[in-house]
Amino acid sequence: MKRLRFSLRTKLALLSLLLLALPWVGYQYVGEMERFLRDGQREALVATARAVATALHERPQLFGRPAGSSAVSLADSILPNEEVLELAISSMPVIPENAAAPTLPAAPVRRGGDEVAAILRGLERTTSRIWVVDRSLEVIARAGTLVPPGGTTDESGPLTALWRRLGGKAGVAQADIAALLADATPPSAQAVSSAFFGATASWVRPIGDGDVVVVAAAHPVWVADRVQGAVVVEESTRAILSLRDRALERLVLLTFAGFAIAAGVLLGFASRLSWRIRRLRDEAENAVDGQGRIAPLSAASSAGDEVGDLSRSFSRLLGRLAQHHGYLETMASRLSHELRTPVAVVRSSLENLQLDTLPDSAAPYLERANAGLTRLTRILSRMSEATRMEQALASTDSERFDLRAVVGECVQGYRMAHGDARIAAELPAYPAWVRGAPDLAAQMLDKLVDNALDFAASGTAVRVSLTLDETTTRLSVTNHGPALPEALEGTLFDSMVSGRSGDGGDEPHLGLGLYVARLIADFHRGTLSASNLPASGEVRFSATLPLA
């Protein structure tokens, strides 16, 4: 399977998705805060119920009995507290836990209700509702309301409203919730049963289909050693839910803002880093010019990070390669210059020996020495050819000439030297005007044809063709022979590079012929290329020159 490739910016963008964990952590924190506030609200209600019950302790007249009287009702004198409570509970319908109790008929205000109401009036809170009931669940007094003065207002923002619509909770309107909270339903027997047993209790009951619930707490009221009633304090969680919604909205807004800022910073950092790496890549690829010369980076980065260090390392490496490449380019001319003096000494010595009288047995040795010296002289001439060509190109003037005519004259000379069967030509019927030097173009063609003849298979012909396009002309030399090795790809036209193997015979091959041909092609503002033709088993060398 093809491996997926991601750019540096894409990877950093994916890495920035880890920031999405922050909203989840914030949401968990808000949930813990909501639970903490609910627990605190329940404890506060229990404390309020205890405080009200403390004010009602040991005051039997508040429950319809004379002050200081220890008399009890008939039911109290016959049945213990638990059985009286069970009798009161059994006489009421069964109500599920956490469900709203049915509305009981309003009981007439009993004696002591005014005093209890006066006590509750000083303790009532704007968002709490306080009940005082006796053992028979008759309401003695009630104070406060769950709906704040002025009605209820929806303090949630647009994000909370959208979240409610997505969650399907938008059906419970605020007016409906206010109406449910305003419904003064007395506490149920099951809810206050723990208080009648002398224990403090707290519970919650939902309101409608929304998130709003009513938190309640009950505390017993003691007269002597008997529970004569209970104080029930109720309060809704609307304030906590409103605080939670505001916290969530603020969390979402801050998260989005932080995520946008972080994503922008990461994207900018990744873009700059990618730009620096691409710039380094482009400079490294362009460090080798059209003539094969290597130059150090034009603008090595001075940054102190890893990319800057890598850029400076590349620059130093390319500088050393450029020095080595320059040394290789001048090595041929230096060797040629250094060897000419000893070659001249050897030649003069051989000439002096030929003037002396020598035995006949020495003649073959003199002949071999002269042949070796002649071959060495040719090698020195070839070694200095590239240097002389560079000097000649620097002083040669360009002119407009017909390349077709030059190629035609060269082909006729090749046929006279090698025979018509070895050279085939395909020339256009009209001139190909280019700008340069005719003798240099002929010399370039000589190098390409000589190279093709050396590698052409026995009995095959070398084909010279000239084709024209709209703005360029292509001079190609094709031969049947061994394919170009892949190891020489990109370096075949460099100095001192040869694809030949073996001794090479009397004719020296130093890998300078194609290098000279490339210098001439560059002088004509053209390019030189080599390619294998697998379909026909041929090798083609082409020089593409712009038309004048």
Descriptive tags:
548 residues; alpha+beta; five-stranded mixed beta sheet
Provide an overview of this structure:
- With 548 residues, this protein is α+β, with helices and mostly antiparallel strands.
- The protein folds into three domains: 47-236, no CATH class; 286-395, Helix Hairpins (Orthogonal Bundle), CATH 1.10.287; 396-548, Histidine kinase-like ATPase, C-terminal domain (Heat Shock Protein 90, 2-Layer Sandwich).
- The chain has 14 helices and twelve strands.
- It has a five-stranded antiparallel beta sheet with strand order 2-1-5-4-3.
- A hairpin with a 3-residue loop joins strand 9 (462-468) and strand 10.
- The longest helix has 50 residues, at 306-355.
- 24% of the residues are buried.
- Residues 67-110 have low confidence and may be disordered.
Count of spatially separate domains: 3
Could you list the spans in which at least 5 consecutive residues all have pLDDT below 50? 67-110
**Approximately how much beta-strand content do the residues carry?**
15-25%
Strand order within the widest beta sheet: 2-1-5-4-3
Largest beta-sheet details: 5 strands, antiparallel
> Termini distance?
51 Å
Question: Rg from C-alpha positions?
Answer: 54 Å
Task: Indicate the topology.
Elements: H1 8-16, H2 21-56, H3 74-78, H4 81-90, H5 113-123, E1 128-134, E2 139-144, H6 158-166, H7 174-182, H8 189-196, E3 201-206, E4 213-223, E5 226-236, H9 238-285, H10 306-355, H11 363-395, E6 399-402, H12 403-418, E7 423-426, E8 433-436, H13 438-455, E9 462-468, E10 472-480, H14 513-523, E11 527-533, E12 538-546
Parallel strand pairs: 7-9
Antiparallel strand pairs: 1-2, 1-5, 3-4, 4-5, 6-8, 9-10, 10-12, 11-12
